[in-house]
Amino acid sequence: MNLTRKLRFVAPGIGATLVVGIAAATTFARQDWSKEELAILSTLRLSQLPAAEADPSNRVEAMPQAISLGKQLFFDTRLSANGKVSCASCHDPKQQFQDGRQVGQGVGTGIRRTMPVAGAVRSPFLFWDGRKDSLWSQAIGPLEDAAEHGGNRLAYARAMQRHYRIEYEAVFGALPDMSQLASDASPLGTPSQQAAWQAMDKDKQEQVSRVLANIGKAIAAYEKNVHFGQSRLDRYIEGILANDGKAEQLLTASEKNGLRIFIGAGRCVTCHNGPLLTDQHFHNTGIAPHGPMPQALGRRTGVAKLLADEFNCLGRFSDAAPEQCGELRFLATEGATLDGAYKTPSLRNVASRAPYMHAGQLATLDEVIAHYRAAAAAKIGKSELEKLALGAQDVKDLAAFLGTLSGPIVSEQE
């Protein structure tokens, strides 16, 4: 609709044209959307994201001393086998707390894409397969993973003693006596490290494992303060809901059509919904599998690992009471939908987070949209996708819209 021509028809006088033009501008953007569409759009605003709930399994997450310690640990390369890898190596603040690689690269090469830190505290399950159920438990995983930090449990406890004793004990209390223990020991390490671990008595094993859990809790306390900032889409939606005529200028015609497809014919909002544009669930989208079995099974393997994890919400290192672990207690453990299913990632800042999917299988957003449009059969499990009747211009508009989701990454500790 040509706004200028319509105003001249209604009020041909110059003065009347100006008055009517101002009045129409305040409602034009809103009139472009139906009530049903506006209701959906209103749920996508970042301003509708409630404050993050406290994690009952991490009693120190709000302590300033824990946050400060966690920040130091996040950037410390000494927490790795080769002294070169830190959490920030893959979760680089200069790259939106991710790394831009197809798969993670630590002391070795991983099999999955690095997931962003921002907003992760909102997720009940972490990693692409959901094998962790808290931010602190997630932080522990890479430390002992052979391809990531590659370290061992006792070496990390010794690092706390050597470099962070005052800071650690101010938050968690006294470190255990390790004077009679080997230099390296871990239930997950090399054969010699595992043998050294088995030679330790059970009390010492638990004390050292608790230090590892506390390292994770401190890192999580820092990571909880990393957020997504407002995007152009947020400002557009806030503007049209407030009848602000200037909002119309925030999105191009192509981006607006892409938004309409996103919440309509493209069915993207089915899974990418809410202020973080994710349903926090796991879905099989038919993407080509990557990595060895059984990891390629995705959520099915993740569930098994989560239930066996000594650092889960119900484990002895959790600060939560059993009744506070509802997500874990009522976890779906069976069903064909687990096979080949992976976490729905947030789409915030997605345009600058290539490559895409759980192992970086697709290089561009155009390729991602083409994949969803074609809805090819899955090689593992059954894909949930259905073919989309989108034209070539619709595809371009949808890709253009995804660029409006970019905003700053806000760290309260910077």
TrEMBL record:
GO terms for molecular function: cytochrome-c peroxidase activity; electron transfer activity; heme binding; metal ion binding. Its main location: periplasm. InterPro entries: Cyt_c-like_dom, Cyt_c-like_dom_sf, Cytochrome_c_Peroxidase/MauG, Di-haem_cyt_c_peroxidsae, MauG/Cytc_peroxidase. The keyword Chloroplast does not apply. Its cofactor is heme. One of its GO terms (cellular component) is periplasmic space. PROSITE patterns: CYTC (PS51007). SUPFAM superfamilies: Cytochrome c (SSF46626). Binds 2 heme groups. It is found in: Periplasm. Residues 65-176, 253-406 form the Cytochrome c domain. Heme c 1 binds at C87, C90, H91. Binds 2 heme groups per subunit. PANTHER family: BLL6722 PROTEIN (PTHR30600:SF10), CYTOCHROME C PEROXIDASE-RELATED (PTHR30600). This is Cytochrome-c peroxidase.
